[in-house]
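Closing statement on the zinc ion sub-project.
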Amino acid sequence: MTTQSLSKDELAAKAQQARSQSIATYSDYRVGAALQTVSGEVITAGNIESSTFGLTLCAERVAMFSALADGHRKFSAIAVATENGATPCGACRQILWEFAGDIPVYLINDTNEVTELSMGEFFPHPFDSSKLPEKEHGHEE
Ligand SMILES: [Zn+2]
């Protein structure tokens, strides 16, 4: 299947729509993420909150884990929508770096302003598998 890649604004709009997938029962802070694969497919997710709070999962990681579970391994961009254009948290930066590397990140807020940054800007000194001794580790390609 050949799929056309979305533009920055189109991907940001998908993230904005994905806020409706959010289960933000406790914070009411709805986040949407739209993760694009190199083949142009888009996986969307919202944040999912738990009554235990600590088990809450951000939209970025829900999207990434969902994509990985579906067999996707290469990503070209991610858009994240929040009411105030917030950046991904530290845990999401680690996971996005590990599985997507230095991709563009589009942040969109309630007034549909889109800010573009890169994972390298968010996460300039990452810990990843290149820091581990050479042996079998990491995720399967
Ligand atoms: Zn996060």
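The helical segments are 8-18, 59-69, 90-100, 119-122. With this model delivered, the sub-project is considered complete and its resources will be redirected to Aim 3.
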